[in-house]
Every structure is written in C-alpha cells, then in structure tokens.
Design brief:
The protein has a single domain, classed as Rossmann fold. The protein is an alpha/beta fold. Helices cover 42% and strands 9% of the residues. GO terms for molecular function: DNA binding.
Amino acid sequence: MLADDAELFRTALADLLERDGCVIVGQAADADGLLDAVERHRPDLAVVDIRMPPGHHLEGLRAAVRLRRRHPGTGVLLLSQHLEVTHLDELVGQSARGVGYLLKDRVTGPDFLSAIRRVASDGCAFDPEVVPLLAGQRGGARRDELAALSAREREVLALMAQGRSNSAIATELQLTTRTVETHVRNVFLRLSLPDEAEHNRRVLAVLAYLRSAPRARATTSASASADSVDLGRKPAADDWSTASP
C-alpha cells in the first residue's frame, strides 16, 4: 500500500517496486484514504509519507500510529522529505518490529528495496540520520540499559539500528565479519536478551538502543511547533540487507 499526496512520486515508487516483484494492492493520497485502504486490503506493508493532506503536518505519522494499533501485522515504512523525529518514538512504541523510517533521498537502489522487504518481514530499517537523534547521540545521557556496552559495541548496535547486516557493519567499521559477529553476540549477552532466533534478538537489541535515550524532541523542520500532536503509543526492527523476499 502506497500513501503519498504526490501522484507522480507514488507512480514512480509503484513502478520501482513492481519491477522488483512487489504487488501494489492500493494507493492513497491522504491519511483517511490510507486507513480505509488498509482495512480493505490488509497489505504486508504500507509505505507512508509523514506529511499528507489536509494540514501537511504529521497526518501520515498519526495515521501510521493508528494503523499499527489496528493492524499490527502490517509493516509501516515512513518516508519524509525532511528529517522529522518529533513523536517518532511513539510509532516505535514497545516493539521495533515491522517499522522503518527513511528520508526520500534514500528511495533508490537495492538498499531501499531490501528495506521494503525487511520491514514487511517484521524487521526494521531506520535512516542513518534518524538513528542518532532517536538514540540521543546529539545530546542527552543514555540510560543504564546500555551502560554495560563498550564503545565499539554501541557503534555496532547503532549500525544494526540502521538495518545493516554483519558484513555491512564490518565494511563500515573496517573490521572482519567474524569480529562483528563477536560484538553482536556480546551485545545480546550484555543486554540479557533471550536465547532465541538471531533475527528476534537483533530486533530486541535495536529496541533497547532506541529507548536508551531521552525521548527525541528535535526536528530539523521549521514547522515543528505545528507538528505537536498527541499520537498515543503502539507497538511494532533489524538488518535490511539480509531480508528475504
């Protein structure tokens, strides 16, 4: 399901996804249309622009929160022209599964297509520019939840939150894949995550990372004051480069 008021962008996005084997079950130009269409079609994934009619503030984000409340089995990938983190933690809620947020500049190439599959498959994909703000790397102290992690382990976890695979993390940090695997195992152990499938443990680790800092208050949008809304809370994250179709 695609939701964006710009018909040209929707059409181009639909073409990109269909050429990659995705089925577009519906499109919407506003938040109400999105919710109605999801109710009818129950898609695996909704790709939603944060700003939509009528106010072009956070209608898309508000709709995404309601969507996740009503249809937790539908993944939500938010897109935005500008970096917006106000209230984004309320979309993530208590579970980072099946949720993502990318800047529209990233809507191209294999990484984006992998992110689509990852979020649709109950994983997560957060834009590299979003992760530091959500995790408080630009000010604010971390809570004790991550206190046991080394600086390198935090770096690895931050890249996990962006949806990087172990091999991609190794390339970024100029480490061997085996070394990254060791860091990832240590993250699981230090966060006392249950011994279950690695996919689930990565999701739980990312969730711990995202909630480890004070709630993000910043936004680079000049209209932040107009975007102050009460979104409520709701559930539904991991490495986009290893997503299966």
